[in-house]
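Hi team,

Filling in the usual template for the complex we talked about on Friday. All components are listed, including any nucleic acid strands or ligand strings, so the model treats them as one assembly.

SUBMITTER: L.P.
PURPOSE: interface mapping
COMPONENTS: two
RESIDUES: 640
SEQUENCES:
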Amino acid sequence: MIRIEKLHKSYPIGKDSLHVLKGIDLHIKEGEFVSIMGSSGSGKSTLLNIVGLLDGHDEGDYYLNGQLIENLNEKKAAILRNKFLGFVFQSFNLISYKTALENVALPLYYKGMKRKERLQVAMDYLDKVGLKDWANHLPNELSGGQKQRVAIARALVTKPKVVLADEPTGALDSTTTDSVMELLKEINDEGMTVFVITHEEEVAAQTKRIVRLKDGVIISDTLTGN
Amino acid sequence: MKFLFDSDTWQEIYGSIRKNKGRTVITIIGVLWGIFLLVVLLGAARGMENNFKKIFGTFATNSVFVWTQSTDTPFKGYQKGRRFRLTFNDIEVLKKQYSNEIKLLAPRNQTSNLVVKDFKSGNFNVSGDYPVLDKIQKKNLIFGRFLNTNDILRKSKVCVIAEDIYIQLFDKNVDPIGQYIKINNINYKVVGVYKPSNNINFDGDAVYIPFTTFQIVYNRGNKIDWMMITANEGVDIEQMEQDILLSLKTLHKVHPDDKRAFGSVNLGKEIGKITGFLTGMQFLTWFVGIATLIAGVFAIGNILLITVKERTKEIGIRRALGATPKEIKQQIVLESVFLTTVAGMLGIIFGALVLFLMDVTLGQGPDATLINPTVNIPIILIAFVTLVVLGTLIGLIPAHMATVIKPIEALREE
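RESULT (copied from the run log):
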């Protein structure tokens, strides 16, 4: 599903450049539940951004769903993101003036789905994350865990190939963390590829494969017992 | 174009507008004010123009008035400072010589006299006139008729009086027609009462008596005080004025370059000055209106730009969810166009409302200062279309700004 070969990425900082990713080789198959571990500055967010087509890479090859990603303009990237990827962010990133239902339906809007159909599908996904009764609430009327569930529903609603979660539990307490991870596990059990970035051992422990990054290189890649 | 008619597009715009009520209102006011000013200023200018038109309306605007003063140059044995009078002979000569140019010519004699009716009296202008005066300066008669040719031929002692004289000398609700008033101890029968226009009025509240009667009563012989001349259509009135003055100078043995001997007023020229002023005012109106409009549109652009900065994160989210740059741009531009359109419409409505109020308060009655203050619909449409086009163009700036930021940077924004 995701194949990365000898990936390099540097960021210019003034006259110098910061070499963040120093030759990453990573292959994630369909249906995997992978977590990327690493302390801050290890390059894990950069990796996620590149995988998520939010940022470009300098060297190496990146295949998403068998397609080589190169010379990507914003339009193509947007379409690929909409088609293949679902995002879950640490800070939820819900649109504050839209209800939970509308937030979930938004990716479908950009997919070009009719409103009625869209809200129907969105409602199904909200139901799936257990928030059907909260459909017409604005994000600020929801708890952190509920917000993240809405965000997960939003990530799933387009039936993406991969769900990318950037510190999905970073803003949550341990109880809600568990429930969110439970939800991600369920999604994975249904066959979805889930790609989680975290620095929490407990979170990583609940995934099926842990890739550890340090200073821009992969230092270990192990399967957990799950 | 399809996205324009998509209810989802509007749903999105409604959402973002509803969220930012404050800036929406401020933006709308900016543009609203611009088009409002344009409508009101244009309407007021039109009202003023109409007012001027009405003032000149009762008067033939291609008129020249000529009278005599005293010479300032010695000529043919005459000393300078000689006084002389226009005569009936001049009229005959002018009428013959300028038969193609002159349309109407009214010789006039005027004086001021005590006018008495029973126990009431007052001092008024008395004017000896021909019926042709009514054609040069339309008399708005409220009772009876104006002087006619029979009065002239019979040298009748009849008069036409101003409404004010009627009010001062007659009791209320008395029919003045057929009543007699005394001017200089001579009885005149009132045949008409006119209402002086509050516009150009050279005679004030006057008593008009037949020219021939005036000649005899005031012993004027063939002398006349002054004359009013109107030109035929298409005649260069200034040239005619020059030519007539030269002819008169020859007739009266006045040096051709004498500046003082004849006084003349060319009404066309005077009106031209006012028309020029009106044109200047209209230009100013357009300038102010359009400048305000542009300022308003820039306000929209500015506020949208701020909004885009505020909404960087939201735009980043949308792009992460699969919005293409084009979709983001469309939404922002459409928002801009929508705001300008709504503001423009409101501006036009408020402007029209103010013009309506102007019409009700200032545009009614004889003393109206702004008559029928209106704006042409094509002008409004052009202004409106310009506004929307400018709104689109200005919306492109924030729209571009929204898409040059990489989504990753937009998402990082807190």
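MY TAKE: Chain B touches chain A through 28 residues (CB under 8 Å). The CA atoms of residues 68 and 262 of chain B lie 4 Å apart.

Thanks, L.
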